[in-house]
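Q: Make up one entry.
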Amino acid sequence: MATGLAIGYANFTIFLLLLSGWFILQFDVKGYAQAKMWKEHKVAQILGWFNLILGVAILAGHWIYERVK
């Protein structure tokens, strides 16, 4: 019973990764720096940038996949 319709979670995942990465960099990193919590600051920076980069990579991959398909 294939109708050709598919529910994809790529857009939702991309949105969450980009939003969470931005929030981490905007709020957590600054808060940890003000509190002089340097280890937490560094981990938050890494996690924030990782989320942003992963979101952009998935966005590019999804865009390429949709173009080729």
